[in-house]
Every structure is written in structure tokens, then in C-alpha cells.
Amino acid sequence: MELDKYDQALLNGEYGETKQKMMEILLALGKIYEAEKFIEVKSVQVSGASFKTIGDAGLSWLNSLSGKAVVPSFLNPIGMPRDEWQNLGIPDDFAKKQLEVNAAYTRLGIRPTCTCTPYYFNIIERGDHLAWSESSAVSYVNSVLGARTNREGGPSALASALTGKTPYYGLHIVKNRIPQIEFHIDDPAATKSWTNAHYGALGIIAGAISGNKIPFFTEIRPNRDMLKSLGAAMAASGAVALYHVNEITPETRFPFFKKHIEEAEREVVEIEAAEIEELFGSLEADVVALGCPHVSEEELEELASLLENKRVVMPFYIFAAEEMRVKHPDLCARIQSSGAKIVPDTCMVVSPLMDRAGVVMTNSGKAFTYLPGMCKATPLLGTLEECVRAGCGE
Amino acid sequence: MLLQGRSIAKGTGTGPLLITDTPISFLGGVDPKTGIVIDESHPLFGKSVAGKVLVFPYGKGSTVGSYVLYALAKNHVAPAAIINTECETIIATGAIIAEIPTVDRLKGDLPTDGVVTVDGTRGTVSFA
User: Number of Cβ pairs closer than 8 Å across A and B?
Assistant: First the structure.
């Protein structure tokens, strides 16, 4: 690989042992993926933040590191709300370890944003090179915002945070971002009434078929929340880090892409609108959990109006970034007057909150995919309105 | 004999060969406290990787597997070195943070048993 003076100095240990090791990780990745050089990244999003996922081994590694991030770096959701864990029945020993993980990341200069949606609070521009790691965030910034990042692991993202570099390969290179599999919906008219949950269901099906290919959708007109839902689900049921929706996502409007989309051959798959409907179940919910990925301002507004003058009759959790909660205290107060809880910093999948919670009703295709394996809970898919009705015992 | 491969993680390590043609998932596959393979479906089930030159095609499974390699090293039960057919990110990352000398893409054949030395810095494997 071609190394500049700074890369070489990092590898020589001139910036300390931690940064040297971090650069060795990036160099090994560069070799594996046959990158010709390193590039600078504008921001980093670091996963491996919940003690539930990284365990003692990950924590002891973090504690062995020193140095500071050199680019804006955001932490993924952790295993509990950092200030209110006592109220949620999080076990003390888990909380203690989680606080140690937070302290380690903060010491390394990783901002404790604790969200999978840092793109709501930071400007990400088309063409920006990033090193992000949470799968739904990677999908959103690549697909919806047109930035460029591979799906990093926890350590490689941390390595980019501390060095500001990433190897130049994969989705950083424009020619690797061309659609590879095309999806049609048999009844395009039916998609006009689709909600976020329907797009989550579409993502479950399309992600499983796509594997790690780049999907291309035509005939659908999702808004940004629907795109978030679609991408998150495809990254969970498959390994989709980038997708395109014709005339909706930014890269499909570029002449370079238009030309490739018209000329290149690719597999075409038809999905029946009826298959999407079949994923919506009819079980009795024990818990309602929303905000996977973390809710947007629009989703918060919609929830506030749906829950107006209502009372929830079961645990009703809305997962959100702390920054979103701070930005919208009035909306949050309206929601919480129904008895629903807004839970910051964590997520239903990486906190112990949903472990063995019974039937968990959600509008998220991603949560639907992960709840059985990661929380031993039974998932139930419903639209936002259906979730609110069920949660209020209607 | 000296075989040339590709350097992945630096340092040198010597030990008896432990060879499998089945990929390894370190998370859930190897006990971080003892170094014993606990995945019942793996041909190395019940064997210890501690102090061995572990030869396998590539890693698979969760990326948390990288941290398991680190934990093995902290508990002094890590492999002495790793030889992969084609190293991927879980093993590469884990080997670097755990300081386990690692090479891949060897040109030539390893013996089926005996002691070898892996030089992860030069990307070579030597044996008598």
C-alpha cells in the first residue's frame, strides 16, 4: 500500500503505541481488501458500545488503550440510559460494567452520543468519506445521504477515530456502488398506502434475498423515515450497506449512475405486496417497543398526536437519542403523559430491557429480525397506529 | 524449510501445529478462559489452541470474535501464532490487538505435524 508520511509515522509508533496498533489494524484491512492507499475520513461512528455485546473481553481491551480521536466520533447506543438505569430494572453489575465502557470511550475522545442516528444531529454531505459501523446508520448515510462508508467493525471504526484514516476500498469507490439486484413490487398501487412498518417488512424480505448485494428499487416512493426503516431491515436480514431507490435516493440522479442503471445487467426479483402484509401478525402484545432505529423528529410528532389523551396499559417504550429528547421537551412531555416511556441512549436490541419480554410489538423490521435471537422475545409487527392502539388496550 | 506468505500481524511465535480445514468462530467457539474449542460441531472440539500454531482457512461468525482473541491472550491461552489460508477482518483485527503473529496466503505446503515458527513481521513460516 501507498503510505504518506503521517501513515508511516503512525506505523512507526511516533504517535504512541495505541495509534500504532490502530494503524496496523487499518493496514491489515487494506491488505485484505487490496486497497491502494489510505484516505481521510470526516467522521466516525463506533459500535461495540453495549456491554451486552462486547463483554469483559471488549472492556478490558478498551481499558488498555490511550490517545484521543482526531475526527468527530460518535458512540453507538449503549446497554442502558446513562442516567436513569436504576428506574428500568437494569441489573447493578451490568450497569457498573456499562459505565466502565462509557468511561473508556469518553477517555478516548469518542462523544457519548449513544445513538444509531447521529445523522440527525450532524451534517453529512454527499460524497463525504466516513468510517461508520452501526449497520442501519451505514445504510442511511450511504443510501439516503450519498456519503461513502464501508460497514466497519467496532475496532476498525475506533482505529479510524484515533488516526483519521481508513483504507480506500469497497463503498468508498464510486464504481463499487452500482446496483447489483433489482426489486419490483407486483402491485405498485398497493405501495401508496404503505407505512414505515411496511417498508420494514419489505426490507426483511429484500435483505434476505440480497445478502451483500446492492439492491435497486423502482416503483416505490418512500419518505426519509420509510427509507430508514427499509435500510435498517435490509442490513439486519441481509448484509446490505447501500441500496438505491430510483429517483429518490441521491445517487440515482447522477448521469454516471443513470447510465449504469440503464446499461448494466442485473438479477431482477419480484416481491408480492401480499408477502409484505403477511408479516403483520395478530398475537396479543405484552410490550410495545418503538424507535429502532432511534426516532426522528417527525416520528416523535406523530407519536405525540397518536397518544394524545390516551393511557397505555402495558410497558410502552420509545427509544430515542438523548439529543432528540433534549431538543423536543414539549413533544416528550406530551408522549409521557400517556404513561409511555421515552428511553434515551440505548436500544431494544442491545439493552437487557427486552430480554425474555414475551411478545414485543414493534413497527421496526430490524427489531422484528433481531428480537428472537438477541432478546429471546417473540416479535410482532404492526404499524405505528396499531402499536399505539394495542399499547392502549384498544 | 522457509515458506513465504503475507504478513498480517507482526511478531514471531513457535509451537506445535494444530490444523483444521474448517473455519473457526471464536465467539462461542473457543472458551476465552481455557483456550479449549467448545463448538461441538467443530473438528477441533475439545482441543486447546493455547501455545499452538493454529492453522485454519479463515474466521467466521461475530466480529466480537476479535475481542475473544484478545481475552485468550490476556488469559495466557492464546495460540502462539495463526496461519490462515485467507485472513479476514475478524481474525486480522483480533490477532493485532492480541499480538498473535499471523500470516496468510502461504506459497507451499506445511508439514502435517511438528513444530513451526511463524514470523508475522516478514510473513514467513519456517520448520525443520
Answer: 60
